[in-house]
Design goal:
single chain, 349 residues, alpha/beta, Spore Coat Polysaccharide Biosynthesis Protein SpsA, Chain A, 2 domains, nine-stranded mixed β-sheet, 14 helices, globular
Length: 349
């Protein structure tokens, strides 16, 4: 896969800082520009909570971008460590760290992002989302902005661009060269149903245009994953564009380990599905409530078949026992993770 085998130093965060230092002063002149020649400003939306351990490497990744016209909007979502102080130190060094939003109380991930997105000017042409514990590769903005510009030339309306990621550990050492491959993920959904049951657009890789931002001023309370909601809204109102390159080092650590990001045997996945049965049930409920929220928000724009499908999926949250399992099978609430994981969903969902 293009971009998956990225050049890396062998010493984790230290190697990252060396790369940042090389790129930060490069003054790259190949940044994406619209037809008129003016550089596009990219608004970066982020929420951080107790991210002091990661925040410096995150901002260094922004500073190292080949596309240099960006501005950061970041909410400190009730941190009890020195996340905000570190951000303020960066703000004194780089005015592009422009908007630090203080949250005395934690809103949770999706509502924190909703708060940030609501503050970005309506005239913004391009908006990226970021996670404070990941690190962007230097071409992250440039490559996604090129894809956005190409898509907008083809058709008007909302566009969401997303990319693959390289999965790394706490020290940025590689765990998997491709997140898509590690998740058996098809990055271009074939239907609204397929996207309703499995997200394919990962938060730190997203870039979307102002037409999509207009639909994202609020995010329903039923939504727990902002990136999934953004992808669903893009599919209903416009289009998704998948770029088959890694643009982010996707850091896995104790607080955020993504199931399946590490390569596992089928037996281990089956054991994991059983051990995580309460989590599986919770996740199915969340997906069901999100489907209901989408049907409520965009029912008038949906086909009869899609509206019926979302309503049926939403009803799973109200069912129990074998009636619930039958509904999961009826509405084909099974993702492209393979037979083993899908069996776990049917039995434990």
């Amino acid at each position: 896969m293009a971009g998956a085998d990225c050049v890396r130093d062998g010493d984790g965060d230290v190697g990252h800082r060396r790369r940042v230092q090389r790129h930060a002063g490069a003054g790259c002149g190949v940044c994406a520009r619209p037809a008129g020649g003016a550089m596009t400003q990219v608004h970066i939306a982020c929420s951080a909570k107790n991210a002091a351990r990661w925040i410096d490497a995150f901002v260094e990744g922004l500073v190292a971008q080949t596309h240099r016209d960006w501005v950061l909007w970041i909410r400190d979502d009730g941190s009890t460590d020195d996340t905000r102080q570190r951000l303020e130190a960066w703000q004194r060094r780089d005015p592009r760290v422009a908007h630090i939003i203080t949250g005395e109380n934690s809103l949770g991930l999706s509502q924190a992002f909703a708060d940030v997105l609501a503050r970005i000017p309506a005239e913004a042409r391009a908006v990226a989302t970021a996670d404070a514990d990941d690190v962007w590769m230097p071409h992250r903005i440039e490559r996604t902005l090129e894809a956005l510009t190409d898509a907008e030339r083809m058709t008007a309306g909302p566009v969401l661009v997303h990319t693959d990621l390289e999965v790394v550990d706490e020290q940025l050492q590689r765990l998997a060269p491709s997140f898509w491959a590690s998740q058996a993920m098809h990055p271009t959904p074939t239907s609204l149903r397929s996207l309703a049951i499995q997200n394919v657009a990962t938060g730190p890789t997203l870039l979307f245009n102002g037409a999509l931002l207009a639909h994202l001023r609020t995010i329903p309370a039923a939504v727990t994953n902002h990136d999934w909601w953004i992808a669903l809204v893009a599919m209903v109102t416009g289009r998704l564009v998948a770029v088959p390159e890694c643009t982010v080092w996707y850091r896995q650590h104790g607080a955020n380990n993504t199931a399946g990001a590490r390569q596992e045997s089928a037996w281990r996945r089956l054991r994991g599905a059983w051990a995580r049965r309460a989590i599986v049930r919770r996740d199915v409920d969340r997906m069901a409530r999100q489907a209901g929220a989408l049907a409520q928000a965009y029912g008038a724009q949906l086909s009869d078949a899609d509206r019926e499908m979302l309503t049926g999926l939403a009803g799973i949250a109200e069912r129990t026992g074998w009636e619930r399992r039958a509904a999961i099978v009826r509405w084909r609430w099974l993702a492209s993770h393979g037979v083993v994981r899908n069996l776990g969903v049917v039995l434990r969902g």
